[in-house]
Write a structure and sequence with these properties.
This protein is an alpha+beta fold and 217 residues long. The chain has helices spanning 12-26, 42-52, 72-91, 97-104, 113-116, 140-157, 170-177, 202-205, 210-213, and strands at residues 64-69, 119-126, 161-166, 183-192. It has one domain: NADH Oxidase. It has 9 helices and 4 strands; from the N terminus they run ααβαααβαβαβαα. A 4-stranded antiparallel beta sheet has the order 1-2-4-3, with helices on both faces. α2 crosses α6. The structure holds flavin mononucleotide (FMN). Flavin mononucleotide (FMN) is lined by residues 30-31, 33, 105, 107, 164-166, 187, 204.
């Protein structure tokens, strides 16, 4: 047990101001799809992963593992595999309305940023504590997703650009990152500095207003 960290009697107006300031900062986060190759120190990535590791998790199983990829060889292998998956996607259901929607948001089948950006993080979710464990980790996906939110926020506050990417070629990612079979790739997060030509697509600027995303009972 540890006593609850004491909260000096912060006046409510200060709490509101803190919340507003944080909200304004996170509102500036957007997905970047054009990265420069400017390096990002490993210490920033380590700290962001440490922040992710403070997330709440089902039964405190902390069912996450982050593989941090920076070597050019691994990034090239990643790009080749992801682009192959994406070509299948865009050639299949990509012919539908989805394609237009994703294009408006800036998504493309070609992913040069997977090689240009200095870091690509793969968030793995552990379906159980060990390969031989009989009990599944409860709420694994929810727990890993919250951890990824903290990771993204830390990187944003550190002044870096990120892109959350689906982690589709599941088995390939396990092999590339040398992760065991009971782990599942949940998310891919590209991290770096934005390139000079980076832009936020107009479609991404549209955010639902508070009265559409909240109700008060
Ligand atoms: C789980 C998840 C998967 C995503 N996958 C992709 C992806 O495969 N390719 C891509 O370009 N963007 C991807 N995105 C980014 C979204 O398109 C983006 O977050 C959304 O359009 C809102 O834009 P914003 O991040 O700039 O606010 C993904 C986002 C999430 C949360």
């Amino acid at each position: 047990m540890r006593p609850w960290p004491s909260d000096p009697a912060t006046p409510d107006h200060e709490r509101i101001a803190n919340a507003v300031a944080f909200c304004e900062r996170v509102a500036l986060r957007h997905s970047c799809r054009s990265f420069s190759n400017k390096p990002v120190p490993r210490a920033v990535i380590e700290t962001a992963i440490a922040a992710a590791g403070t997330a709440p998790s089902g039964a405190n199983r902390q069912p996450w593992h982050f593989a941090a990829i920076s070597s050019p060889g691994a990034k090239t292998a990643l790009r080749v595999a992801v682009e192959e998956e994406e070509r299948n996607f865009y050639g299949g259901i990509g012919g539908s309305e989805w394609q237009g929607l994703l294009r408006d948001l800036g998504a493309r089948a070609e992913k040069p940023y997977l090689e240009t950006a200095p870091w690509v993080l793969i968030a793995f979710g552990q379906t159980k504590a060990t390969e031989t464990d009989r009990f599944p980790n409860p709420h694994m996906t929810e727990s890993v997703s919250i951890a990824c939110g903290l990771l993204l926020t830390t990187l944003h506050l550190a002044g870096l650009a990120t892109l959350v990417h689906t982690a589709t070629p599941a088995r390939f990612l396990n092999r590339l990152c040398r992760r065991p079979e009971h782990e599942r790739p949940v998310m891919m997060i590209v991290v770096g500095h934005p390139a000079a030509d980076a832009e936020v697509p107009a479609a991404a600027l549209v955010r639902k207003p508070l009265d559409q995303i909240a109700s008060w009972l």
